[in-house]
Hints:
By secondary structure, this protein is mostly helical. It is built from eleven helices and no strands. The longest helix has 29 residues, at 170-198.
Amino acid sequence: MGDARLSPAAGTATGAASANPRQSDNPGTRALAALNALGRSEAEAALLRCCGSVRWARLMAALRPFHTMKALTDAAEDVWQALAPQDWLQAFEAHPRIGASLSTHGSRAAAWSADEQAGATAAGRDEKRELERLNDEYEQRFGHRFIVCASGLAAGEMLSRLKARITSSPADELATAAAEQAKITELRLHKLLAELAEA
């Protein structure tokens, strides 16, 4: 981690190959073209839904154009790993607590969170109480929110991971949480492109 020594030119190089005209009817190609065509502030706002670090969103918007999904996700990982811890913490705080009551209405990011945490929403009363208790203990110990890529996980698995990680050292846990955020970001980039392809 550290200063992100990236530039728009580097982003273009990451994209490498130009879009193939024969693939112009491909939804993925159309979605990337739509992302590339957004104004700077619009792109930053869209990317901020994928990762709650303002600096990450700004750097990613500046690195456009992206011509392949791999170029986009590779850049997302490179920028994320180059950020400072405070940028990571900002992204963590953009997430609701695991097990919190979530609504599918409101912002699209909130709807994504509700979908990703569906396993925790479906938890029984005892599991929800245990999640709340352990979330409190985790935040007191580490000073930031518990981050896990929750898609497809049942409440019991989330509880198991929370219990296992709560004994980690602060440095190790920060790295683990950052890795989980990177997974969430990639998942949400795919969701963003799916939305752009349908627009």
